[in-house]
Design goal:
Layout: E1 2-3, H1 7-13, H2 19-23, H3 33-38, E2 40-41, E3 58-59, E4 62-65, E5 70-74, H4 84-94, H5 110-122, H6 139-151, H7 165-173, E6 179-182, H8 184-191, E7 203-206, E8 223-225, H9 234-245, H10 247-255, H11 263-266, H12 278-286, H13 298-314, H14 319-336
Antiparallel strand pairs: 1-8, 2-3, 4-8, 5-6, 5-7
Helix pairs in contact: 5-6, 5-13, 6-13, 7-8, 13-14
Length: 341
């Protein structure tokens, strides 16, 4: 099982067997195109690492866990926010003693990186452009970071720089927060779990709200199955992946709490009551969520970005200084790895 940011490393290494040419996998129209794209190497859109540009594209991974970052809010208190300006207005309106208008997942490195990138993208910012030029110190990126770490933070929980997903979903489930971004696993495991949640039926889910760019871009966090290059049981592994993808088996997977990828399941009205986030997840796939930059340098990039973002959330660096620091470090990392500087 692979998290989708690992695909660039495995693809660059040549560590996986191609599922299309070796095992006959083809694209199924009931599965979103972007789900296949995220398991394809080299990536079919966005910047391609310099060493990978001459390689033929193949499908190396098939998504089983259809993770896309979305947005949650207390639907018993208001209607859905149409954009990030409405998110800010609602945060101000509903913020109160022991009730946070917004929850920031601000813990250093991966947590705050995952929490902030959908906002960055929705504001027109980015880590790289399509030629691998760093964009974090651009005006749009700094505006997005200022929005999260200064404007929204006014109405966020104390100690936001130490909050991770568990603390965020716990705050929602115990009735102490109004809204935040969210991953499907937090919904099924905590927010909608009647054994632990005090707000079941009071929270609604939508795709990431629109920003000044005119788009709302969620983040992919798909978990994929692939077949190692050295495997001596490739045919059996391929048969298992095909078996997992069958509609009837995916329905059983959903019954056990799984996060599906098939449109027909996500849009099945008979499953909506038990899975209130399915409609939002289907819409998030339709909106074509973004993926983290497809480079084997992502671990170092995320550490630089997520450390600087955490400092901005903590108030240790201004948004501009934080992004300038991250941009400088990332430029050095990418130049050392042979990318355009």
């Amino acid at each position: 099982m692979m998290d989708d940011p690992w695909m660039p490393k495995f693809g660059t290494m040549g560590a996986l067997q191609p599922l299309d040419s070796s095992f006959g996998f083809t694209r199924d129209s009931d599965i979103p195109t972007v789900v296949y794209d995220v398991g394809t190497w080299p990536p079919p859109h966005g910047p391609v690492p310099p060493t990978e540009q001459s390689k033929a594209q193949h499908l190396y991974g098939i998504t089983i866990v259809g993770n896309v970052e979305m947005f949650m809010y207390r639907s018993d208190k208001s209607s859905a926010p149409a954009n990030w300006d409405a998110v800010l207005a609602n945060a101000k309106q509903y913020n109160a003693a022991n009730f946070y208008g917004y929850v920031i997942r601000g813990k250093a490195t991966n947590p705050v990186s995952s929490d902030s990138l959908p906002i960055l993208w929705s504001f027109g910012g980015n880590i790289f452009d399509d030629t691998w030029k760093v964009q974090l110190d651009s005006a749009d990126s700094i505006t997005a970071v200022d929005f999260l770490t200064r404007k929204l933070k006014q109405y966020a929980e104390p100690g936001a720089a130490n909050f991770d997903a568990a603390e965020r979903s716990q705050a929602m489930a115990t009735g102490k927060a109004y809204q935040s971004t969210v991953w499907p696993g937090e919904i099924t495991g905590i927010v909608e779990d009647p054994t632990v949640s005090q707000v079941k039926g009071k929270v609604a889910y939508i795709p990431i709200p629109q920003g000044p760019s005119g788009k709302g871009l969620g983040m992919m966090g798909n978990w994929l199955l692939g077949i190692p290059k050295g495997s001596h049981n490739g045919l059996a592994a391929a048969d298992f992946i095909k078996w997992m993808l069958k509609t009837e088996n995916m329905r059983n997977y959903v019954a056990q709490g799984g996060i599906p990828i098939r449109k027909s399941i996500l849009n099945d009205a008979s499953l909506a009551a038990a899975n209130p986030y399915f409609k939002a997840l289907a819409a998030s796939f339709d909106a074509v969520p973004n993926w983290r930059p497809r480079t084997d340098q992502w671990g170092a990039v995320e550490t630089s970005y997520g450390t600087a973002m955490n400092a901005a959330v903590a108030g240790q660096l201004t948004p501009q200084a934080a992004m300038q620091q991250a941009a400088s470090q990332i430029r050095a990392t990418m130049k050392g790895a042979g990318y355009p500087s």
